[in-house]
């Protein structure tokens, strides 16, 4: 075999797993479709205590020292909800988050930190996964590798060239996101369209010169009714290469329903007619209103360079009974295994949990002659630990879309006080990782 582990996907999950495997002396390589290191996504991730614990167990200092340098430890969680009746004042609540329990960091910088902990030779860009074939004692993994374009100097045209590359490994890990091609070949299903659109941008805002819509280290949730929700949050300070000055940064997000698909249908036309300005026009249509909740997000959007705004549809994945294929040499992690609605903020956190658990279970597997038996046992234990937990988290995340068909009847019938209790217990349960992985015996709604 060429190597112990091939990881398809150079996102947060694939890279975190590669760091964990390298720490444990396991030979792993990451294959990423993008032609080069991705520079920006216009968004950030919330690393709760479970994600922090997972990263620190993958490699000490990975979250607290390295990622903490670029992000913001949230200390205030506030919410603004519209009044129940017309003319009623917005309902504003604030609560404190214990120090060191939640880290907000731009997706790009979290990924940069992981890349910096790997040998550059471990990451192969421009490799599009095509398919895999189980073989005796492992798997053959096929990639389409982009090469330099062949230019025709007569008519100034160019033709992209590519070649097939085959890599043999003892284990293939599909960490290639919600649109996972590994999962498509292994399972054959498709992501579920949640009929929601998300807009977001990270705005450099030194000394609150553009707006003052949140406090330092604050995460603000803004309910707008009709399944529309917004967020404003401090995501830390970066060093601007242009002038060397520190720059405070705000992330804003807006989610809006697209039940009839109109937003998806008009996106291409709007972009063709209005260019990048179209995204700003499209998102502003969803924040018009007299309420304070609308005004805060509207002000942040108005202050944003249209070139910095991102838009995408939201999808999730239906839970699986198995994350491995019949050969026992292919396994899914992260969004490929359990892509979910971002409502509870558990996407990146549980992906880091996957990377941690798989790293420790694979430790010493490949160092002995009976590695094949050990591998099957390790993957079986991985599924036993991860699948029951993620089925519950995925289902709860789907509830937070607000769509009636995704919420159990018994949950709808709960009094508001009990719904809030259930939400609080969910957070308490998930954050205790790596304890209470399958449930919290002390809770009412999340028992093992």
Can you tell me about this structure?
This protein is of the alpha/beta class. It folds into two domains: 3-33 and 126-191 and 317-407, 3-Layer(bba) Sandwich (FAD/NAD(P)-binding domain), CATH 3.50.50.60; 71-103 and 193-315, D-Amino Acid Oxidase, Chain A, domain 2. Helices cover 32% and strands 29% of the residues. The chain has 13 helices and 17 strands. It has helices spanning 12-23, 49-58, 62-66, 107-116, 181-186, 262-274, 277-284, 292-302, 335-338, 347-362, 371-399, 409-412, 416-431; strands at 3-8, 28-31, 44-47, 72-73, 76-81, 91-96, 103-106, 123-124, 127-135, 138-152, 157-174, 192-204, 218-225, 228-239, 246-257, 310-316, 330-332. The strands form three sheets. Strands 1, 2, 8, 9, 10, 11 and 17 form a seven-stranded mixed beta sheet that branches. It has a seven-stranded mixed beta sheet with strand order 6-5-13-14-15-12-16, covered by helices on one side. Strand 13 (218-225) and strand 14 form a beta hairpin. Helix 2 runs parallel beside helix 10 and helix 10 packs antiparallel against helix 11. The radius of gyration is 23 Å and the shape is globular. The two termini are 40 Å apart. Residues 240-245 have low confidence and may be disordered.
């Amino acid at each position: 075999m060429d190597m112990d582990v091939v990881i398809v996907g150079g996102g947060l999950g694939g890279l975190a797993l590669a760091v964990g495997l390298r720490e444990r002396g396991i030979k792993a390589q990451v294959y990423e479709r993008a032609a080069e290191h991705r520079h920006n996504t216009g968004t950030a991730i919330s690393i709760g205590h479970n994600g922090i614990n997972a990263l620190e167990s993958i490699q000490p200092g990975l979250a607290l020292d390295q990622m903490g340098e670029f992000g913001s430890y949230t200390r205030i969680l506030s919410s603004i909800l519209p009044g129940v009746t017309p003319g009623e004042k917005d309902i504003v609540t604030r609560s404190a988050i214990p120090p060191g329990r939640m880290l907000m960091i731009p997706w790009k910088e979290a990924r940069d930190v992981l890349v910096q902990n790997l040998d550059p030779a471990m990451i192969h860009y421009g490799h599009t996964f095509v398919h895999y074939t189980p073989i005796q004692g492992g798997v053959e993994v096929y990639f389409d590798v982009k090469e330099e374009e062949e230019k025709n100097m007569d008519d100034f045209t160019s033709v992209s060239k590519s070649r097939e590359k085959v890599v043999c490994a003892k284990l293939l890990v599909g960490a290639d996101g919600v649109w996972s091609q590994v999962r498509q070949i292994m399972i054959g299903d498709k992501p579920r369209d949640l009929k929601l659109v998300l807009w977001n941008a990270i705005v450099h805002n030194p000394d609150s010169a553009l707006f003052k819509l949140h406090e330092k280290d604050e995460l603000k949730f803004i309910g707008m009714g009709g399944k529309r929700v917004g967020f404003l949050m401090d995501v830390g300070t970066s060093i601007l290469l242009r002038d060397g000055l520190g720059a405070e940064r705000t992330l804003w997000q807006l989610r809006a329903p697209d039940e009839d698909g109109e937003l998806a249908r008009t996106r291409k036309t709007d972009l063709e007619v209005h260019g990048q300005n179209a995204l700003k026009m499209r998102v502003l249509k969803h924040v018009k209103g007299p309420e304070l909740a609308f005004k805060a997000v509207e002000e942040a959007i108005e202050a944003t360079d249209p070139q910095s705004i991102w838009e995408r549809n939201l999808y999730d994945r239906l839970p699986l009974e198995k994350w491995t294929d019949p050969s026992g040499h292919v396994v899914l992690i992260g969004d490929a295994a359990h892509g979910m609605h971002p409502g509870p903020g558990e996407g990146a956190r549980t992906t880091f949990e996957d990377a941690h658990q798989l790293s420790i279970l694979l430790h010493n597997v490949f160092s002995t002659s009976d590695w094949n038996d050990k591998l099957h046992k390790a993957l079986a234990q991985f599924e036993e630990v991860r699948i029951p937990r993620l089925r519950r988290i995925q289902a709860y995340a789907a509830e937070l879309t607000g769509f009636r068909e995704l919420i159990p009847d018994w949950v709808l019938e709960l009094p508001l006080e009990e719904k809030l209790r259930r939400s609080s217990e969910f957070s308490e349960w998930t954050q205790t990782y790596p304890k209470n992985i399958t449930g919290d015996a002390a809770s009412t709604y999340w028992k093992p």
